[in-house]
Amino acid sequence: MNQDTLLSIEDKVISNALKIRFYPMAVASAHGTRLMDEAGVSYLDLSAGWAVAGIGYGHPRIAHQLKKQYETISFTSQLTIPEKNMVGLAQKLIEITPGSFEKKVWFGHSGSDANDCVYKLWPLVRNRSRLVSFMGSYHGQTMGSLSLSGHPAQAKFIGHGNVVKLPYPNPYRPPFGETQALTSQVISYIENELFRTICPPEDTAGLIVEGIQSDGGLIVPPDDFLPELQKLCQRYDISLIFDEVKVGMGRTGKWFSFDHYNLAPDAVVVGKSLGAGLPISAVIARKELLDAGFGVHMFTASGNPVCSIAALENIAILEEERLIENAAENGAYFLKLLEELKQRYEWIGDVRGRGLAIGVELVEDRSSKIPAAEKTAAVCYRAFELGMLVFYVGIHSNVIEITPPLTISKQEIDLAVSILDQALKDLENNNIDMEKVRQYAGW
User: Fold this and answer.
1) What distance in Å separates the CA atoms of residue 132 and residue 148, rounded to the nearest whole number?
2) Mind listing the domains of the chain with CATH numbers?
3) Which regions form coiled coils (predicted)?
4) Which of 31, 101, 107, 151 fits 302 for a cystine, CB–CB 3.0-4.6 Å?
5) Which residue, 346, 358, 352, is CA-closest to 413?
6) What is the pLDDT of residues 272-313, one digit of tens each?
7) What residues are annotated to the active site?
8) What radius of gyration, in Å, describes the C-alpha atoms of the chain?
9) Is the pLDDT of residue 356 over 80?
């Protein structure tokens, strides 16, 4: 089918509530780090489908396991009649998650329902009504996960009132105006303001945080922040929950973002890349936190055998093909080249990230730091025209998100940076059709 025809039909039959679009493309096939459109044009993909395709597209080992599994047991509702794949996956997730305490695993379909698990179970189990999260956070689209979120994407909806949101320690845009001692400012705010006024610690069940705030703009907090946050939670007997849906499963160069600090949180939420493209999510947590009672948060297809075997094989591929090490090494290489690119363009206000979770923040100028949302959309659109797929995120819609498959090579990184360079140069020379750009609102 002609690509324009397909997009026209799609526009008529698919709900706008299900769309975030940056350019006119319909994908026909995908392999490795490349997507091919209906017209046969190949694109280097820096998005991995919002970080889902962690091991790339169409991995033959996954394809083999899916066919074999579907022919053996295509489905069983693990709620009632379990089989070995879900059990084996739970054992593996417990093994790779730190903490010497006894753990269990809950399974769902997406980061949203997994964070909904946290929202529902923690107040119930701990007999404390309140939860704490961060401004700029993105935890999902269901009502519980939406309530935990602090992102403009959910701002049109009124979430539940038992969640209190804190400023996230953004070194580039410090919430209290000072970059010095940013961690102590936030920790002090929690203890001396939040806990003493509207959110008593004895009534607070848990605090959920992203180790790198992803859709909020790929924000990496100061190195001392997450360790100090864990100490704070321990002081007040508050559960510390890490949302690793987007940056977990090896993307930062370790299994999880908190592994860079040798932390052992009470709960870890994973999704997106866990299933190598198939829908599966999980919460790995202290046993007592997930044993709230039978059937209190369940979905018929949770942990189904096909998705579970995909996740098991995905983890094996990450380990055996050394993709986590690749993310660390090539992520550092990518950041180095982007820092060099930053020196050539005043619009690049900040380059940040860890491993292959990287953000490039565009501003009108570095002194004012005014977010350059339209310029960001233009760079992403022009990159598409030049043969590369990249999205933008951030509460100001001005951060280019770089989350490629962990299989990306240095040669592909060189190509990616050259395309970004050309896109920025074309923007500088007014060689981008802004009317086309404005048709695609993205966020």
Assistant:
1) 8
2) 3-55+322-438 (3.90.1150.10), 63-320 (3.40.640.10)
3) 410-437
4) 107
5) 358
6) 999 999 999 999 999 999 999 999 999 999 999 999 999 999
7) 138
8) 21
9) yes
